[in-house]
């Protein structure tokens, strides 16, 4: 991982090494897998439980060396596709005293330091919270926490080593009291989206819940939630034990 910077800014990214691994390593791995497939098609074709058995038998009937060359070429192409996806999804973080810039191939977003109260890395996501403890940014990344922490701290940002609100999250179950109106229905819909691996839908529903003051944390397919400071302040107060009726209701 590279951490490059000067007095004005610091850039944290995978750097040239990451690109070399992706564009050199993945095609090589793909070529190796293609060669291995071509070398073992005769053995695989005799196994009744092998998936895509018809395809394996077809490959086994192809003449050599064309079959091996074709399998290697397909493997290289697959490796290049994986490298392209990895390059598009890699996050580049540029930090200075005024803002942080978060770049991927399909997005380029800047957040002002004045809008962010705290920054941390949790569950392989870079998270920025505002003064209301709501999420300004939640970006998946494999960048190391130590280098991100050094970059943000060097420019005066408030960095935390973990989510400062981790203990406030509660496991969501249907019809759980304490949620804002409409949040339970959104959480039900998001649960279905997560179970079906519909990531875009899950992301959009997370944003909708954020508008209601609900912040989420996922553990596997389980959803944990907490409220922002504004949502907590606007929530109706629960009666204390002294205010309850004599029969305990």
Plain-language structure description:
The protein is of the alpha+beta class and 249 residues long. 43% of the residues lie in helices and 22% in strands. It has seven helices and eleven strands. The protein has helices spanning 15-45, 53-61, 66-89, 145-154, 183-195, 199-211, 229-234; strands spanning 2-5, 9-13, 92-96, 99-104, 107-112, 118-122, 125-129, 135-140, 170-171, 214-219, 222-227. The strands form three sheets. It has a five-stranded antiparallel sheet with strand order 1-2-3-4-5, sandwiched between helices. It has a three-stranded antiparallel sheet with strand order 6-7-8, covered by helices on one side. Strands 9-11-10 form a three-stranded antiparallel sheet. Helix 1 runs antiparallel to helix 3 and helix 5 runs antiparallel to helix 6 (199-211). It is flat and about 75 Å long. The chain starts with a strand and ends in a 15-residue tail after the last helix.
Offer a few descriptive terms.
disordered C terminus; 249 residues; 7 helices; 11 strands; three-stranded antiparallel beta sheet; five-stranded antiparallel beta sheet; flat; alpha+beta
Briefly say what this structure is:
The chain has 249 residues and is of the alpha+beta class.
